[in-house]
C-alpha cells in the first residue's frame, strides 16, 4: 500500500543502504528554523521536479494519517507521536521548521541506529529516510525563526493566538517567557501547541480536530487500501494528525497546495500574511493526492502505506517486460512473481519458460534460488515447484507490482511481507515462524516428487485465492511503474561501445557454486541459453531450455545475517556496478534503485541508460566481489 513517499526526498541526499559500509557520521546539534519560506525555485532545484504536490506541506499530514491508519494499534495515542511522524514522514522544510517541530540530532541518530539493530543490521527504505534526514545539509546551521507579535516566519497566527490571553491562561510563563508578545508566540508555536495550550478564546483546536477527523474517517473507510484488508479488519484510525501543530497549520491554510506554490512570492518581511490568505485543503481529499516523478511517470517508492487510488490503465501494445507485442488487456494484467528452486532434485520447474524476467540470487546454505516474473500466467494448470521467499526477493518483486507466490519464508521478512501494500499468496506461514498464510488452501502437492519439491499452485488457484484475499488482478495505480527497461528501436549489438568484449559464454559458477549457472550464446537466434548443474535448464511443461535476449549481472552489497547463514542484499543502492550481455557481447554497467517500487535502472559507463534488445531478461544478483565479468574492469 502506498504510492510515492521517498523518491523526491532521496533526491536531497541519496544515502547508501550499503550493508558492509560504515555507518554515516551524523551532524551534531539541533535543527534550526529558516528565516523565510523555502521558495518554489529552491524546491524545484533541489528536488528536480516542478510538481508541487510532491513537496508541498500537505505531504506530511497526508503521510501521517495513512501511516497511522495501518499502524500497530498498541502504539496509538503515544506521547511521542510528533517526533515519530517527523522520523517517518519527513518531507517539507516549512512544515517541520516553521511549524513547531524540533529534532535533536543525537536523539534521532540514536533512534536510527536502534531501528537498524531491530532490523538485524539490514537497512530498509524507512532506515534510508532516517539517514537522509540526518545527512541533509539543507537542515544544518539555519538561523532561528523570525517572530513578531502575530507572525512566525511570516505566517500569520492572529486567528489562533492572542498574547494577552495566552499569558493570562498560562501564568507559569510569566517567570520564564515574560510578557513579550513575540516570545509568547514563539513559545506557543514551538512548545505550547504540542502541550495542548490554547492560543486564544476563539479557536478550540480540539473541536476543529474532531470535525476534520470525521471527514478523514469517512474517507479512510472508503479507501481501496482499507477495503482490501477484508472483513473483520480493525477500523482505521481516522485521524488527520497526532500533532495539534498540523491541525493549526491546516486551519490557517499553511498546507494548501496553492500556498505552497505561492511561497516564491513570500518574503521574510515581518508581518507578512501571505500564507494565511490561502484557502485550506479539503481534509477529505488528503489521501487522494497524486504525485508523479520528474518525467510525469509514476515513480513509486513507498516506505509507509498510502491508499491505492485505483487501477492502472495502460494503452500500450508493447510489453514492458520484453518490448514484444501484447494486447492492452495483457498489458494491464498483474504478473505473478514465483519463487522457484535451483535444487538438482527439484528440476525441471513447471512454467519457468514463461518467465519474461528471471532473477537468481544466493541464499543460505551455499545454494541459490530463483524468482520468475510471469506476466502471461493465465491458463497454467501447474506452476512450481514452489519454495520459500527471502526479504531481498520482495524488493526485486515490488517494482513489477506482482502477486508474489511462495511457500513460506524467513523471519527477516516480518513487517514487509505482511504489509498492506503486499499482495502475496503463501502455502504456509509467510515468514516461517509466523505471519499469515494467504491463499494456502489453493496450493497443492503431487506424488511424483518428494517434499519439499512437490508444492504447486495453478492459475485457477491464483485467481480464486486473489478473489478471496481481495487482491486486484489488474495493475494497481500508485504502485505500478510503466518505466522499466529502455529498449532499442532496432537491434543493439553493442558495436557502439569500443570497450565491448566477446561473451559467448557467461560462467556464473563463482556466483552460484551449487547450481553452477551458465549461459551460452546461440548466434542463430541471438539468445543466451541457460544451463544448471551441468545440463540445460528446462521447463517441465514443454521440455524447452530457457533462453534470454538480455543477461544482466548485478553486483550487490551483501552480508551474512546470523549463524544460520541467512544473507542480506542491498537492493536499494546507486553505487554498485555490473555487466550487460547481449548478442554475444558484454559491456560494463552501473545500476540504481532508489525506492521500493521504483524500477532498477541500468547505465553504461558514460551515464546513459543502456538500450536492451527485445526479448526476455535474466538478472543474476551477484554478491559484490564474486564476479568480475568476462574481463576484469
Describe the model.
There is one protein chain. With about 625 residues, the protein is of the alpha+beta class. The protein folds into three domains: about 5-160 and about 205-290, no CATH class; about 330-475, YerB-like (YerB-like fold); about 485-625, YerB-like fold (3-Layer(bba) Sandwich). About 25% of the residues lie in helices and about 15% in strands. It has 16 helices and 27 strands. Strands 4, 5, 6, 8, 9, 14, 20, 23, 24, 25 and 27 form an eleven-stranded mixed sheet that branches. Strands 15, 16, 17, 18 and 19 form a five-stranded antiparallel sheet that branches. A three-stranded antiparallel sheet has the order 7-11-10. A hairpin with a 2-residue loop joins strand 23 and strand 24 (about 585-590). The two termini are about 40 Å apart. Residues about 1-40, about 55-105, about 135-140 and about 255-310 have low confidence and may be disordered.
Based on the model shown, name its key terms.
YerB-like fold; 633 residues; disordered N terminus; 23% helix
